[in-house]
């Protein structure tokens, strides 16, 4: 990266990236812990995820404030402007991910109330791990400014969707088989949906990274959606 | 000027004592390393801290010789310029040879996020954390909030701390992160040491044991119940019935064999999972391995009237880095599955393609069909060899695809012939392929057949190995 003549300017830019990375770490941990809370039926863990969400909100507000201040005072151009805007957008996405994580944690209390459904929680765990991995990869790509790695996350969005669809069917089968499980299954369905949306946010972040590095926005509409996965 | 700590927090194991190391300095550190190496790998922590001790001792010695001012200047410049060679210390090559990641972190103000930088990382650290540079922003290397917290405590509170650090990703590794304060340098920059100790093995063994028991007890119960049922009948009212006895013994034999197959598969799955994070190193001729499998299964295919069509490059043309037995197991399980589900007079195409990108490996081989990637390798520059097994069996509906590699998952309404499968074949394939840092994909069209594609990274040629960042010779890391 080109060095700026005003060192404070460079520092501010770096701070934005670093704050985003730290926020990313907190978000990753929140999602992973929320998942763990559901899978291991751990109420304490769920409570801690809910409590930590405020910190994420504060960080997001802080990053946004810093970015706006940066734009107002330094009037960054080209590369620097994209970096600033990208930090702001990524923080927004991460904040949403944090909220979804919190929502998963909140559902734990109802899920714990019901009897354990081992095959279902196992499927949730598989899907959740996939989503956490994607989030991690995209944040790695962000801190390393690695366009290729970001694009590999971007192009594999359909894997999460497939897991979601499969889980959806599995849950329906359970609910039809035993109506007493409906409450817990409905909550698990929301958990799955939340995970799926976290996956979407990871894809969004990949698109923002693409924009930050290349300046090209067109990619958001170019995703091959489920083209390769047409039903026979 | 704040003095660096006189002795580092050390946890002596097997009677090693910390204090003499400080006194004897570098020589002592190296001797301890030799001893530790001789005494086994679990002394790594001692070893690592010994190196750090040696570092501090050396730094102290230099200070005593009146170089304090110069050192201060260099520490102040750590993130701009690495030392000019004056502080190039020979023990860094020892640090580099360590299997555990070691990192020195500096910081100025608690609320200055960009101030926290790593100023030294050994080779294992660069590999595990996937960083190319020897210095940079700490958050670009580690984001885990727990680890950052213990590092902060070491930097600004002078406290020792530890946290669990999970790398995540497909090949997950679990480390225990130890943060230790290293005091402050002249200009107020505070230093801390971060050591990651690999606990993946221990955690895995724990998890495996639990999984194995759960699976084994659950899956063995069915055949066992059937066995004891027949035994009861044979001892009871069927005691004198010759015909029934023969029939029952036949069934019992089948059930007992099933149990033994199940145990074999479970054990082999456990073994593979335990080693999953250890990448195999041999060179394997994939064509030869595949042809061996085809030869072995040819009689079975002939009996069933199934035609095997094999399309491969010549022997020796495709070399992958792998474990030969396991690669054979992958090919065998895939072809075996195809055989089980093929109708009589069906045909199975076995296709081996080499030098593909990861995207090309999952490209469609059957149109139109539902497609799904069951395992995707972590992103890297590798080229792959892809083995596809294309059958003309009943295929599967799309909703089954994501769950195929689950243990004991069965597609409803399908039987794998008279010879019952254990439901572990594809799980084994997946774990082996993951160990090889490869991928697995499935395509299926109900009524027309299925395609399973396993792909493995090609062995790197010696020229490539020399130029790869991981193996690049970087004997000297400069501590500034």
Explain the overall architecture.
The complex is a heterodimer of chains A (232) and B (480). Chain A is mainly α and 232 residues long. Chain A is built from 8 helices and no strands. The radius of gyration of chain A is 19 Å and the shape is elongated. The termini of chain A are far apart. The model of chain A is unreliable at 226-232 (pLDDT under 50). By secondary structure, chain B is of the alpha+beta class. Chain B is globular, with a radius of gyration of 29 Å. Chain B has helices spanning 19-39, 44-76, 91-97, 123-128, 138-141, 145-157, 200-235, 242-274, 286-304, 324-341, 358-361, 425-435, 462-467; strands spanning 102-107, 117-121, 136-137, 161-166, 174-184, 190-198, 283-285, 307-311, 319-321, 347-356, 370-375, 384-390, 439-445, 449-457. In chain B, the strands form 3 sheets. A 6-stranded antiparallel beta sheet of chain B has the order 3-2-1-6-5-4. Chain B has a 6-stranded mixed beta sheet with strand order 8-10-12-14-13-11. In chain B, strands 7-9 form a two-stranded antiparallel ribbon. Chain B folds into 3 domains: 19-198, PAS domain (Beta-Lactamase); 200-277, Helix Hairpins (Orthogonal Bundle); 279-480, Histidine kinase-like ATPase, C-terminal domain (Heat Shock Protein 90, 2-Layer Sandwich), CATH 3.30.565.10. In chain B, helix 8 packs parallel to helix 12 and helix 9 packs parallel to helix 10 (324-341). In chain B, 44% of the residues lie in helices and 19% in strands. Chain A binds chain B through residues 11, 14-15, 17-19, 21-22, 24-26, 28-29, 32, 122-123, 126, 132-133, 136-137, 139-140, 143-144, 148-149, 152, 155-156, 159, 162-163, 165-166, 169, 228-232, and chain B through 113-114, 130-131, 137, 139-140, 142-146, 148, 166, 168-170, 358-359, 364, 368-373, 376, 378-379, 398-403, 406, 445-446.
